[in-house]
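#struct-pred

JT: dropping the chains for the assembly here, can someone run the whole complex?
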Amino acid sequence: MNDLFDAEEKALADARRLREHLEEVADPELRRGVGALVKAFERSLREQRRLVRFSDRLQGQLANLNQELQRRRQEAEDALARLEETQETLVQQEKLASLGALVAGVAHEINTPVGIALSCASHLADATERLKDDFASGSLSRSEFSRYLATAEDTSGLILANCDRAAQLIRSFKQVATDRTSSERRQFDLRDYVEEVLFSLAPRLRQLGHQVSIDCPSGLTMDSYPGALAQVLTNLVMNSILHAYDEGQTGQFSITVTQPDADSLRLVFADDGKGIPTEHLPRIFDPFFTTRRGNGGSGLGLHIVYNLVTGPLGGSLGVDSAPGKGSSFTLLLPRVVRERENDTVEAEQEA
Amino acid sequence: MTQERLTIAGTERSPEVDFDFASGRFSMRGESYPEDAAAFFGPIFDALRRYLQAPAPDGITLDIEFIYFNSSSAKALMNILEMLEKSAADGTRVEINWHYADDDDTMKEFGEDFSEDLEHVTFNLVSVDG
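RK: done, full complex below.
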């Protein structure tokens, strides 16, 4: 039989034999002494065997626990990866949704001039038809002809002005929409651009009775990612609309741009709404943090703002708010965004 | 020197100890993997050794309920059991209750192993709802 304690058992057997020999020769005290030693040795060997068993069992338990831990860690990592994937999808959906809102705004805005032009054109067509009939039957009077001329002048003027207006709207929306869907970097005049973006939000703001004032030096050129900036401004405005006011309450928004130095600019977006509760402040840029879950809030709006400002736009942002005192978001942006690894920029813009 | 009671509060890695010498009810519960097992168990050995010079007439009941222990603690426990076994051999009534969660086979086997060398001590394996 294989026994890890063979040597010890053999030594013990020798000791027992020694004790037997001593039965005949040694004095009683020596015999007792050796007998006690053998007993102690036996006991010690039993304990050793037991301790090795204990130790093996304990280590076995530990190994099992380790495996279990490893398994759970893997599970947690998988869950995290899935969560991140879902988050990315949701961020993408949120961007598409805001693009959808932009398109709806465009449609609404262009509807008015196109509608006016259409009814003017139809009025002119009717008048022309009547004129043609009267002319053919020879009953066209001088005064009728002069009335027609006045109508033609009025309507064509209105058609011209409204088509002009529609074309102008389409031009500005086109730029915003192109920027929004592309990740292109280009030079742009900041004030013109902020006005264009706010223009695309005008229908929604007007409907709710909110006012926006823009205070930005003219001729301030940025070399950056306008699509990201448009998204940031849109999300900030939408955030205030959703959260800062009770129903029926109207607000004052302001966008103020200053230049702390030649290379950077500070853009402050502020509302005069109810403010953000102090306990929410540290979390407002966290993904999925929302006080409006199930009520239209995705919890991604400000998270996207944070990602775009600190990512493609290469800046930083902070928030200042107190209950009843409105909220202001301060963005510090480089005027000329630093060239970064191309793929990184692409990836963050896509995300 | 007479001693009434030895109590040590449990920590994350050392058991709660309550030796009520007057009544003879002793207990040790919790985890046991102290940084220095000799330092932790030394005072317990000393107190027990003193007490066993003149144990209570009604004898001793020791309840042990460990969740986890290391090898040093196992050796310390063997020393305690050996002291009690000697005292029982001299006529003291000693009863040990080894508590283990009913789904914890390993802890049950540990109890069986600990009882191996005990002849005069009554050793009970007590399963507890896990």
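JT: nice. The CA atoms of residues 288 and 298 of chain A lie 6 Å apart. Residues 6-71 of chain A form one domain.
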